[in-house]
Amino acid sequence: MPRVKVARKSTAIDMTAMCDVAFLLLTFFILSAKPKSQDPVKAEIPAATSISTIPETDFATILIGSGKVFFGVEGDDVRKKTLSLMAEKYKLTFTADEANAFSGLQSFGVPINQLHQLLAMSSKDRASLVQPGIPVDTTATNELFDWVHSARLANKFLHDKDLKIGIKGDSQEEYPTVDKVISTLQKQRVDRFNLITSLKTAK
Amino acid sequence: MAELDTSGGGKHKGGKVRTKKKNTRVDLTAMVDLAFLLITFFILTTTLSKPKAMELVMPDKSDTTKQLPVPETRTMTLLLGSNHKLEWFVGEPGKTKPAVIGYSDLRKTLVEQDKLIKDSHSGQGMIVIVSPSDKSVYSDMVTVMDELNITNIDQRAIVKILPVDIDLLKRDNLY
Q: Binning pLDDT at 50, 70 and 90, where does residue A141 land?
């Protein structure tokens, strides 16, 4: 009596489709990933129920943390133009290399006379440096005022759009620092700005 | 994963010597492993919750022509003190009795007072003055503005704190 042979099946699975899907997803995630910007100071943003999103362009962020103020504006071209306007105002000169380094800076917080040193650093050194913050006080002629003003001019000049300003403050920041920033903005008649918040989750 | 060879071997009996057909299939296991590893990495590193923005409109200081008189009976003043506590009163400072509450009770108070004022002022809403003291923190201010947004009280302003108000906060150990 002949034995009934069970046909041996191959255990190899066709991985082509799986591979396709995996790489498709991978491509999607790589393309949608935005390099995480490293803030020069840790700021835990407060939660609120507001759901409007932050614009990607024509936007400047004032970061407030540990009593210090940092400034950053979106767009490499706007940053370059802002720097040249500031250089003009403070009678300083920046080399092309320095301008390029500046256009890659997401956010910075040094007085303008220390900007040369900051730009000369490598990005690794810059990340570990404790920046002193941009000088700000209640008078109309502080450096933050000029930075915001220059950035607004630069944005209007390059994109013909009004620059929107966001304040990203640390939750535990004491109010006087925030007040100084707000009054600086109000000095140049910026009465509308965005407070950057995280979405409050339902309790 | 080892691929089992079930093609039956390459024994050629007698006949012509054939060149052995090579398997064109490539083992994709390693490639898939790598792809999924990278996917996992990118999924974990992408920030899912993007920060949101809350619009804040401050009164225009330079325009003094359009100032309306504010009836004191309709104003509610919130003084933000230390330790995440705030003090509120309706009307003029010093004349009405202030109360100290925490931020969790703020919404209830706002709704109650808004209703009281609407009832007594033929539907006109409450005007809220927010005065953050130097001892309050940024998140307090954001919380108050958020509560005002939730309760739909759009007549509000952030006003610099007065010395009278600071004295009040000091009395209640919130400064």
A: confident
